Amino acid sequence: MYRRVLLKLSGEALVGQAGYGIDPAVVQHIALQVARVRELEVEVAIVVGGGNIFRGLAASTAGMDRATADYMGMLATVLNALALKDALDRNQVDSRVQTAIGMNSVAEPFIRGRAMRHLEKGRVVILAAGTGNPYFTTDTAAALRAIELKCEVLLKATRVDGIYTADPEKDGTAQRYHRLDYHTALERELQVMDSTAFALCKENGLPIIVFNLDGPGNIELAVRGQEVGTLVAAGQRPGLVD
Fold it and tell me: CA 111 to CA 211: how far, in whole Å?
């Protein structure tokens, strides 16, 4: 269904059973899923977070200068991006890391035209260091890059299998939506992603699919347009899973 997608991975998605840092088995699992998507000739960009190593917002609430903390978080995303690239390379998937903060020894700078050419040549582009600016989340970076690179959908991989009426980890009665429109998600404060990122998606008509990364083949299912997780898009009548 989709020919060019942006996959948003949280840093926590790379932790696995370790509880902290990067679990090589999890990174390999993600790389294999991306490899299968590439076999469909789908162009893939990836934005990865850094919360498994350092969370800027949490550090700032503990007294650290917010801008400094956010820059440290951006550097953490580069570590994750390099780990992901290594796993993709080992699975014969050609990839490039581009960063919003210059570090030419390990990655290319983010240049939109160059990223577009990489995608057109079948390379996976891993976008690190967020937007390069403090006070912006990697969700916002994902929405921005998806729009810049003319992606058809933003795939947000999470620990849960979609968007619920309440936090399913705290409320056993929470029900999952299988589709939503932007207005309902905002009105009901469902916390799809931070408000800046969500506003970018809404204003530019970029669909969002929120799904569980751990589900076998879920990335491929989402790319194929099969029902997985929750779809947020214009004109969708809100619907709960029976």
Answer: 29
Q: How far apart are CA 163 and CA 192, in angstroms?
A: 7
List the chain domain ranges.
4-240
Q: Is 165 helix (H, G, I), strand (E, B) or coil?
A: coil
Q: Exposed/middle/buried for 212, CB within 10 Å: 0-12, 13-18, 19+?
A: middle
Distance in angstroms (rounded) separating the CA atoms of residues 162 and 124: 25
38-68 residue pLDDT tens: 999 999 999 999 988 887 667 777 788 999 9
State which amino acid sits at residue 196. Answer: T
37: amino acid identity, one letter: V
More confident of the two residues 148 and 158? 148
Q: Does 241 score more than 90 pLDDT?
A: no
Q: How large a percentage of the chain has pLDDT more than 70?
A: 97
CA 81, CA 176: separation in Å to the nearest integer? 31
| CATH code for the structural domain at 4-240 | 3.40.1160.10
| SS3 label, residue 231 | strand
Contact 145, 98 (CB under 8 A): no
Residues 207 and 154 sit within 8 Å (Cβ to Cβ): yes
In terms of DSSP bridges, do strands 208-212 and 230-232 run parallel, antiparallel, or are they unpaired? antiparallel
Question: pTM for the full model?
Answer: 0.93
User: What residue has token string 């009548």?
Assistant: 237
Q: How many whole angstroms separate alpha carbon 157 and alpha carbon 182?
A: 18
